Amino acid sequence: MKRISLTQYLVEQQREHGHIPAQLRLLIEIVARACKRIAIAVNKGALGEVLGSADTENVQGEVQKKLDVISNEVLIEANEWGGHLAAMASEEMDTIHVVPNRYPQGEYLLLFDPLDGSSNIDVNVSIGTIFSVLRKVTNTRGVSEEDFLQPGKQQAAAGYCVYGPQTMLVLTVGEGVAMFTLDRETGSWVLTENEVTIPADTKEFAINMSNMRHWAPPVRQYIDDCLAGKEGPRGKDFNMRWVASMVADVHRILSRGGVFLYPWDKREPDKPGKLRLMYEANPMAFLIEQAGGQATNGRQRILDIVPTKLHERVSVVLGSKNEVQRVTELHQAAA
Ligand code: AHG
Ligand code: MN
Ligand code: MN
Ligand code: MN
What residue stretches are annotated with the Fructose-1-6-bisphosphatase class I N-terminal domain (predicted)? Predict the structure, then answer.
């Protein structure tokens, strides 16, 4: 079987669709290389002294793990010098990181969740890196946080790397979703799945059930109906999965369908949800839509939301189209 590398895939996409400028190609290759470095650190685990807490807190009020900090540094260092970026933003940084003066400034903005699934690091369960790429649309010199406040539908590319039994890179540049598996012997990313599609229907849901008592009525209604099984209104039995690494849960959904919910709940009534719009929801929503699925916040399409601040949070419902539609209709009916 002929093997296609990430580089070849990007070159061919450029030839066929002509929408991957050289700077964007460089950016994706650099992010993929950074993910390889993160994968090496993740794989070393205790041997590399990378497990455990860093004893610092991030802007989200979460205690940072050593790997959260290491992954953030790897991504910044890898992306600073290439001349493809104007600035970066991350779950683990209070404010944006502008490319230093000693390097040329490019036209792209890179956003990332350097290490997703922090609570799974120390227990050897799949974790990942999520990234999103925007274009700096204003022509003004310099770059500010405002340049990042674009709706997700303007993403030029998005993807994630999952550090699991296999290390895989999943990518969209707006022409479908492709999956690459890291060949550890050769060190290259090999295309192993192209034109990924999510089935419209599913019998599998993903939600943190321990929050049930805090949910809003539409979410409760939806899950109650699923739990009622064959005898209930859905007329079929449902299965549940919750890895607690969004990357792993989304990867399963891209692979065999399903629906993922991290809804608003009463624990923190003033926050729209737990997950971050720019580092988690937008890139995942872009991938899911590109694979034929849907992503909403219960009321509207995630990719249409115009962010008002960098670390904005959002409710997330994504995955198999008919299921997401059902959850969204329940919310709309309750409004
Ligand atoms: P992060 O590790 O980047 O902070 O994100 C964790 C997120 C997401 O990966 C996952 O779906 C969710 O938090 C898990 O939350 P619970 O611990 O509430 O299940
Ligand atoms: Mn975190
Ligand atoms: Mn995350
Ligand atoms: Mn994270």
Answer: 5-193
Q: Is 208 annotated as a binding residue?
A: yes
Q: pLDDT tens digits, the chain, 335 residues: what are they?
A: 789 999 999 999 999 888 899 999 999 999 999 999 999 999 999 999 999 999 999 999 999 999 999 999 999 999 999 999 999 999 999 999 999 999 999 999 999 999 999 999 999 999 999 999 999 998 777 899 999 999 999 999 999 999 999 999 999 999 999 999 999 999 999 999 999 999 999 999 999 999 999 999 999 999 999 999 999 999 999 999 999 999 999 999 999 999 999 999 999 999 999 999 999 999 999 999 999 999 999 999 999 999 999 999 999 999 999 999 999 999 999 98
Compute, in angstroms, the gap from residue 68 CA to the centroid of ligand 3. 10
Q: Complex ipTM above 0.85?
A: yes
Pocket flag, ligand 1, residue 30 (CB < 6 Å) = no
Q: How far is CA 234 from each of CA 25, 44, 238, 240, 296, rounded to the nearest angstrom?
A: 45, 45, 9, 15, 21
Answer yes or no: is the C-beta of 118 below 6 A from any ligand 1 atom: yes
